[in-house]
Automatic annotation (TrEMBL):
Entry superkingdom: Eukaryota
InterPro entries listed in its UniProt record: At5g01610-like, DUF538
Keywords carried by this UniProt record: Signal
Pfam families (alphabetical): DUF538
Name this protein carries in UniProt: Uncharacterized protein
UniProt KW Cell wall biogenesis/degradation keyword: no
Position of the signal peptide: 1-21
Length: 167
């Protein structure tokens, strides 16, 4: 094979590989690219759209999803949207958390070192990033093997309540 032909072949392979990589980049990869753990999204994402220039995104799940994480009930709609930049998600829509007996929309997620700040507008709570390793499964969440994990409910609620009082 002459070297121009070889070069052309290599170029074609490179382009094909790059295209394949772009096609298979998932919403979970995208989160990690923006400094977030993949576990912010549950299993069952069917696709996403991202306008890289504005950071506007939409993520589609195969249905609604709810589970418990860190003792909180979380609910995901089948479409999640927001504006993402490195380490920050604003105008988030589609994820809500139950605090005591009320549901609040999580409107902002911020990366702060090894923590994630989840804000519901009036209050925010901080969680270690290691709580979000791997994507939770609808129903049993992060604890699918060890469903019976027990923690003090008051203690967890206090995290949200005390941070709102302090603000
Ligand atoms: C969505 O996908 C997840 C992961 O593949 C699966 O566990 C779940 O049952 C699916 N939900 C629906 C409503 O099909
Ligand atoms: C995260 O929350 C903590 C405690 O509420 C606050 O001190 C910190 O500034 C927040 N970090 C970011 C990046 O918003």
């Amino acid at each position: 094979m002459s070297s121009p032909a070889l070069l052309s072949l290599l170029l074609q392979i490179t382009i094909a590989a790059a295209a394949a990589a772009a096609e298979t980049a998932t919403a979970y990869d995208l989160l990690q690219e923006y400094d977030f753990p993949a576990g912010l999204l549950p299993q069952g994402v069917t696709g996403y759209e991202l306008d890289a220039s504005t950071g506007k995104f939409k993520v589609y799940l195969n249905g609604t999803c709810s589970f418990k994480a860190e003792g909180y009930d979380l609910k995901y709609k089948s479409t999640i949207s927001g504006v993402m930049s490195k380490g920050k998600i604003k105008n988030l829509k589609g994820i809500s958390v139950k605090v005591i007996f009320l549901w609040f929309d999580i409107t902002e997620v911020t990366r702060d070192g090894d923590d994630l700040n989840l804000s519901v507008g009036i209050a925010s709570a901080q969680f270690g990033i290691d709580n979000f390793e791997g994507s939770p499964q609808c129903g049993c969440g992060f604890d699918c093997v060890n469903v019976e994990r027990e923690e003090s409910v008051e203690l967890r609620i206090n995290r949200f309540v005390s941070s709102s009082i302090l603000e």
